[in-house]
Amino acid sequence: MKRSGIVLYGPPGCGKTLMAKAVANQFNITFLSVKGPELLNQYVGQSEQNLRMIFEKARLASPSIVFFDEIDSLAPNRGAAGDSGGVMDRMVSQLLAELDTLHSKQNTSVFVMAATNRPDLLDPCLLTPGRFDKSINVKPATDIESKTKILEPLCKKITLEPGLTAEVIASMCPDTVSGADLSSVVQKSTMAALKEVVLEIEAQQLSHDEESKVIEEATVTVTKAHVIQALDEIRGK
What we know:
This protein is an alpha/beta fold and about 240 residues long. The protein is built from eight helices and seven strands.
């Protein structure tokens, strides 16, 4: 029996979507990303048709990966209250049918991945052998080494003051932090440094042409103080 799919679950911002993209990139195959709500339509039968078209595209682009983000919004537990018209029940049934026939056609190689913040909301039938028979808990970074590996490529795009490295920034972050939060730290630190440079230039009361020239030549350097400011903003959000 061929394995059909994997469900990645964990808190928001911990890299579930990025992990799915990395798998497709590693094997150099087509990656089709779909957010659950995008498939839903107000007309009867259109939502199921949209789902069938996704799998048909995946077969035509084989080998490929179909990635369902927020799959809990697409395939919740059937029979749940609030399912007006039974559209969600039909979507779950259609998804199960597509997964069951995934490998029935020859010369096609389609793998399915999904991500959710709430695995408890998924219909249990999805998590049976031959469908999404493997679940992986994607956790936020907790050790400095993991945080440093996430920060290193982000820090290559900016200028850090001497002595400030990705590892130093990682050591300043909270014990448990998501990849999205680490990216936000770098972005907010850079914006704080940029704002500081702009204010310094404006204080010189230069002409418009002189000011534009100085801004072009200015170097935006992120300091430890900027990182602390960014972390304070994130903690207070």
